[in-house]
Amino acid sequence: MNTISEAQLRKIELLKLSGINEIFTQETEPFSKEDYLQKFETEYQDCANCKLAQTRNKLVWGGGNADADIVFIGEGPGQQEDLQGVPFVGNAGQLLTKMLTAIDLSREDVYITNIVKCRPPGNRNPQEDEIRACMPYLEFQLSIIQPKIICALGKVAGNVLLQCDDTLTKMRQKFFPFSSSKLMVTYHPSALLHNPDWKRPAWEDMKMLKREYAESR
Ligand code: URA
């Protein structure tokens, strides 16, 4: 079981100072990464830091393996995700599962989350204030999981994480240094459902991810 290192604890202390607090109680046993994520989800289950709280059904924190070396980051929950509280379970999620299978990974091998944890009404793009309000949660998740590779799904996630306004074409097919991880950007599975021609270049991205993953182990 992976536990939290001293360095991670220091980072968490910093995050606490920047607004995430009170998730650490008096327990003396070392926590697993999963424990930390669960504690954090429970602590913030009533989050109302932005207007998306008014229209959401369920907060969708993320799911998968807290000890994963790869984290996928989408844009925000859709209708099915909002109802079930689980990321990528609708049509786009089924395609994401297939993309993982194609590179010999399962959903249990990776962690999947989103830039914003509550559904933007009508599946619109998340707005700047919503992204800003939610970003400490993603930072916290990444500081706990410490993935080797982060895969941003779609232009919105890529732009937010890389703090740029580049096109998807410009961002894909390369790795960017990102904290202690490497970050790549590929097509959002919803975009692939609407534009089947993009499945071929998306496959190139998946192969690149697979190579990097194999080298990182
Ligand atoms: N699209 C996303 O970006 N995230 C989900 O969880 C589902 C669909």
Descriptors for this entry?
217 residues, alpha/beta, Uracil-DNA Glycosylase, subunit E, six-stranded mixed beta sheet, 9 helices, 6 strands, 43% helix, 12% strand, binds uracil
CATH architecture assignment = 3-Layer(aba) Sandwich
Would you identify the CATH H-level superfamily? Uracil-DNA glycosylase-like domain
CATH structural class: Alpha Beta
From the spread of the alpha carbons, the general shape counts as globular
What is the count of DSSP helices, taking H or I runs of 4+ residues?
A: 9
- When the domains are counted, the total is 1
Q: Helical content, roughly?
A: 40-55%
Classify the secondary structure makeup into a structural class.
alpha/beta
At CATH level 3, the topology is Uracil-DNA Glycosylase, subunit E
Task: Report the mean per-residue pLDDT as an integer.
Answer: 92
Span of the ends, CA to CA: 17 Å
Q: Would you mind describing this structure in some detail?
A:
By secondary structure, the chain is α/β, with parallel strands linked by helices. The chain has one domain (6-22, 31-216): Uracil-DNA glycosylase-like domain (Uracil-DNA Glycosylase, subunit E). Helices cover 43% and strands 12% of the residues. The chain has nine helices and six strands, in the order H-H-E-E-H-H-E-H-E-H-H-E-E-H-H. It has a six-stranded mixed beta sheet with strand order 1-3-2-4-6-5, sandwiched between helices. Helix 1 runs antiparallel to helix 5. Bound molecules: uracil (URA). Residues 74-78, 81, 87-88, 92-93, 114, 190 line the site of uracil.
